[in-house]
Design brief:
The complex is a heterodimer of chains A (about 200) and B (about 220). Chain A has about 200 residues and is mainly α. Chain A has 7 helices and 6 strands; from the N terminus they run βββαββααααβαα. Chain B contains 7 helices and 8 strands; from the N terminus they run βββββαββααααβαα. Classes of the chains: A mainly alpha (about 200), B alpha+beta (about 220).
Chain lengths: ~200, ~220
């Protein structure tokens, strides 16, 4: 017979098995993977990925995402420019999708992750008004959807490929893909058990 | 809370969404258990999980091959017809020097979705034969690492967005591959979102535990 406190139970991030929190060297009893073993620098990894993502997000907004060249005219459009253009062409649903996927979701993810990372270190939002686990779950679910714009550019660039009319991917596509990749890594690196410890 | 030993923790489950501890209960075949706190899906019970998943994964692979072999979208542009296939889309990124985006695309919309299906087939055929206790464990760990990175569904929505943007350029024809990809994405969503890894781990435990009991009595 063993006696455990309910607060000491944690979930293995790999196989979902319930484990007893034994402190620094947690190893999952079912799949054998380490459960957030780097306790000494538990949020730093996530911070590092997040800062990289934010840095990559700057050129993603400044450089052109899509370069259209028609009969010698080269015209580049940034992410925001593309949204405005689509709005003016009255294709509202697509404009809204692109706006949500490439501006709203990344920015929201940055803000939520920053809030979570700060709140597990400092007493912030301890009043339980916001369910932080739900917030974290939400960032995990909506995160990958910001890749939409990159895929759209890839499809357009592959399809419109004539000598007179041509669509090319811009520098921002690379920067944006890197930014999304690092936000996903930052979300994965976040130690969910910290929320519990600081509640 | 008192427990017999550490293995008794298998009767508990922590909700994915809100991190509350829940006790596992027996539920009827074909139903699912939801979290009492937030309503999120905890686990389902399917007595024919092995056969169902094998059938779905094999169907998925067939449609994946179809989706790659035929043209995705065709467009009449200034009198010449252009078309893309899924591999051609990725290849053209490499041709234009977008190696980083190309690598992301190769992994996110080609290799990872395919791997999820192949690993599922492997795990469930091994479980059906009742072999490979260690192999299934490694495969399950691999599966859980890959699962968040399969983005076939997002690629499909991107095609729809691209179609709307293309209307301005010329006459668009939707290819065979588009429909194949649509079915593949639906199966992919069922496999990745509906079948919880927890169920496979519990199934694996039951199968190999029953085997050990038989060996002990024999």
């Amino acid at each position: 017979m063993i006696e455990v406190k309910e607060e000491d139970l944690i979930r293995c991030p790999v196989c979902d098995a319930v484990n007893i929190n034994k402190g620094k060297e947690n190893v999952c009893r079912r799949c054998g993977s380490a459960i957030y073993r780097h306790r000494k620098f538990n949020t730093e990894k996530s911070w590092a990925f997040l800062v990289t993502a934010i840095i990559a997000y700057i050129p993603a907004n400044l450089y052109p995402m899509l370069i259209t060249s028609a009969f010698g005219n080269r015209e580049g459009s940034t992410i925001l420019g593309g949204v405005v253009l689509l709005w003016e062409l009255e294709s509202y649903p697509v404009a809204i999708i692109i706006f949500i996927a490439s501006i709203l979701i990344p920015v929201m993810k940055f803000l939520i992750l920053i809030y979570l990372l700060i709140s597990v270190k400092y007493p912030l939002g301890k009043d339980k008004k916001i369910n932080k686990h739900k917030l974290y779950y939400m960032t995990e679910v909506i995160g990958p959807w910001s890749m939409i714009d990159v895929f759209v550019v890839a499809i357009l660039a592959a399809l419109i490929h004539l000598s007179s009319v041509e669509i090319l991917a811009g520098t921002a596509a690379t920067a944006f893909a890197i930014s999304v990749f690092f936000t996903l890594l930052a979300a994965h690196a976040f130690d969910e058990t910290l929320i519990k410890d600081n509640r | 809370m008192k427990l017999e030993n550490e293995d008794a923790l298998d009767h508990y489950i922590i909700c994915h969404q809100c991190f509350t501890l829940q006790k596992e209960i027996d539920i009827a075949d074909g139903t699912k258990a939801c979290c009492a706190e937030c309503g999120g899906l905890l686990y389902r019970y399917d007595s024919k999980l092995i056969d169902h998943t094998l059938a779905w994964s094999m169907t998925g692979i067939i449609f994946f091959v179809l989706a790659n072999a035929f043209p995705l979208i065709k467009i009449d542009l200034l009198g010449s017809e252009q078309f893309i296939t899924l591999p051609k889309t990725i290849a053209s990124l490499f041709e234009n020097g977008f190696y980083v985006v190309g690598f992301f695309c190769i992994f996110l919309i080609f290799i990872f979705p395919l791997m999820i299906f192949l690993i599922n087939i492997l795990i469930f055929s091994l479980l059906k034969m009742g072999k490979g206790e260690k192999a299934t464990k490694e495969l399950l760990i691999l599966l859980s690492h890959i699962k968040p990175w399969g983005m076939a569904d997002i690629f499909f929505i991107s095609i729809l967005v691209a179609l709307v943007k293309l209307i301005a350029f010329g006459q668009i024809h939707i290819g065979v591959s588009f429909w194949a990809l649509m079915i593949f994405v639906m199966i992919d969503i069922y496999i990745t979102k509906n079948i919880q890894l927890h169920e496979i781990w519990m199934l694996r435990k039951r199968i190999f535990l029953a085997q050990k009991c038989e060996e002990a009595t024999a």
